[in-house]
Write a structure and sequence with these properties.
364 residues; alpha/beta; Rossmann fold; 2 domains; ten-stranded mixed β-sheet; four-stranded parallel β-sheet; 13 helices; 16 strands; binds iron/sulfur cluster
């Protein structure tokens, strides 16, 4: 039976981290001299929706206390451009803080990747960061938050940051959920901790932070995610990614089958992105039939950038959509409607171009 701990964090984060991992039966996973890689969610889209540096530093000190040899923190952020990635990392003070502990930060985009070809549910070729793949212990530390496509983005999804930048977009176009599960079959994470000091609701990059003051830990990443999802307000069986991951033999997604230790699991009913969308844009009519998550992300970007300047109320995306006569059409797979509809080409379309179109700047 998979064990998952929920631990309240008081004034001593290091002590809470150590207790969380002791409760989750993780003591002894790191053997003296082991090469340890810590994988936070440092997506470069926004510091608020990122694993807290303080939690990563606590993980480094805990791994050192366990006798780890070389410890690295590695991440391959969302491909938002080198300048933005560097300023994001600098704003968090990553290099200096890790340097004081003798831990190096590795930008996976610059590192070696091991190539995998022609595997089911994956693009024809993917590259996984060699450091993450070949370390002795991978400590997987996402932040607790909702997600527009996966409902929650936690330990299972966090490993996507170990891919080459181009592979990430290919995952969105191919089918994000099965591809993420296939990636997890190739890349084990022996220790999984969810930073739930604050949870993000409404959106995975620009949502609201809700203080919870908790850490969730497990050796089973699916089980950790099931508890994190339940804490958000999504009970067992409501998160398709976790059902798929469990079916692939990666862990247990049914909370009632878990050995829960520590604090009680109290669901918080955080706002999901779909509900936030309806609340923010009550007049918006979105027809989405079969769209990839990349197209949905471009639409979210466009809506956020456009704000109150939006002039379009009907939008269609996804290959099977049948756009209304006055709908804005998004994405190349609806190109058969380009002659008759205002549209944004691209697969996926660019978020800035979507924003311009939402302001009525694009015609058929
Ligand atoms: S244009 Fe179509 S195929 Fe391309 S990302 Fe969008 S929904 Fe997917």
């Amino acid at each position: 039976m998979s064990r998952v701990s929920i631990t309240k964090v008081g004034t001593d984060l290091d002590a809470a981290f150590a207790l969380a991992l002791e409760r989750a039966d993780c003591v002894g996973v790191i053997k003296p001299g082991h090469r340890v890689v810590i994988k936070p969610n440092w997506n470069a889209c926004g510091v608020e929706g990122s694993t807290k540096l303080a939690v990563v530093l606590a993980a480094c000190r805990w791994a050192q206390a366990q006798g780890a040899g070389e410890i690295s923190v590695g991440e391959g952020p969302v491909p938002v451009g080198r300048e933005k990635i560097e300023s994001y990392l600098a704003s968090m003070g990553v290099q200096a803080a890790l340097g004081r502990l003798g831990v190096r930060f590795v930008l996976f985009d610059d590192a070696e990747h091991v190539l995998f070809r022609d595997l089911p549910d994956l693009p024809p070729e993917i590259g996984i960061a060699q450091l993450a793949l070949e370390c002795d212990v991978l400590i997987n530390i996402p932040i607790l938050k909702v997600h527009s496509c996966c409902l929650t983005t936690l330990c299972v999804k966090n490993l996507k940051g170990c891919l080459r930048p181009a592979d990430k977009m290919a995952f969105h176009q191919l089918g994000l959920l099965p591809a993420v599960v296939a990636l997890n079959r190739l890349l084990p994470s022996q220790i999984n901790v969810i930073d739930a000091l604050e949870a993000m609701e409404g959106d995975h990059n620009r949502g609201r932070l809700v203080p919870l003051g908790l850490l969730i830990a497990s050796r089973d990443r699916v089980a950790a995610d099931a508890v994190g999802s339940a804490l958000i307000g999504l009970p067992s069986g409501k998160v398709p990614l976790l059902k798929l991951a469990a079916a692939a033999g990666l862990g247990e997604h049914r909370v009632e089958k878990l050995d829960l230790v520590g604090e009680a699991l109290v669901p918080q009913r955080l706002e999901l992105p779909q509900d936030a969308l309806k609340r923010h844009y009550p007049d918006l009519d979105i027809q989405d039939d079969g769209a990839c998550s990349a197209c949905r992300a471009a639409l979210m970007d466009g809506l956020y950038t456009t704000g109150r300047n939006r002039k379009i109320a009907k939008i269609a995306l996804g290959a099977q959509s049948k756009p209304a006569a006055d709908a804005l059409v998004l994405g190349q797979c609806l190109s058969r409607h380009f002659a008759t509809h205002a549209h944004v080409p691209g697969c996926p379309p660019d978020g800035t171009a979507v924003a311009r179109a939402l302001q009525g700047e694009t015609k058929a």
